[in-house]
Amino acid sequence: MEISILLAEQILAMFLTMAVGFGVVRAGLFKTEDSRIISNMVVYICNPCVVVHSFQIELTDDKIKGLMIAIGLSVVVHMVLIIGSEILSFIFHFNSIEKASIIYTNAGYLVIPLVGAVLGEEWVFYTTAFILVQTVLMWTHGVKLIGQEKELNIRKILCNPNVIAMIIGIALFALEIRLPTVVDSCVSGFGDMISPASMMVIGMVIGDVDLKWVFRQKRPYLICLLRLIVFPLIAVVAFAGLERSGIHTDAEYILMIVLIATSAPAAAMITQLAQIYGKDSRYASVINVMSVIFCIITMPVMVLSYEMLIAL
To answer: Which of 102, 185, 230, 241: CA 20 to 30 A from 280?
Structure first.
């Protein structure tokens, strides 16, 4: 119960930051296009710094085992989402934007700052598992789904700043190398900016969007239902059962971190890919905006449900 309340408070605080971004665009102080600069800073500086800093911990067998469990669960979650969206598509006839919005979450922007604020910085280490799996799938399956590209772009995967940061972080972790104090302070300082900066970006992106028009759209409600409630509830039940198996001493929180990532709103990257490949980026942004707003309620409810099940 306590963690779900902390999560709700942190999401609300992040929502207020998003409201600031929305307000400065509405007030004419910034333009929506200006968000690209902050977005680039988050993607290319803040997020990689958080990832590298998260690996500045003591190398132990428990940490390695926990990371492997988190990676394995993240793979399973994405496989369930991919297969589930394909099966449901026979009923609801999803287009590529809708499928991608069900499968891929805003884990990079939301999960790292949420986990750091709610559970503590030492737990951010495990968030890299979900982000790594999603990054690889986004630039393979996701690009093929949205852009109908047939060839696998290995270069884009390896050049992704988050993947590079993970490689550096894992190397430092495995070799038990600690960054000098001055460098570590700089890295952690940029990492501390990720929460307000990322939420400012989301707020600025929707700053010129007619929210009344957004909520008049009917089909995105179905996508949000699946993305924020149906599939996360499946994860809640599965993870609660897995937690009782004693797979790891920190299983409760490792599973909770993967659950938080699974319960996150639709990925903002889908809108960017839709723009690149000439798809309906406006529709993608509608789903993103709606899911971000709804997650203020749904994410804490998922964590609370998980806590209640494991307490039984």
So the answer is: 230
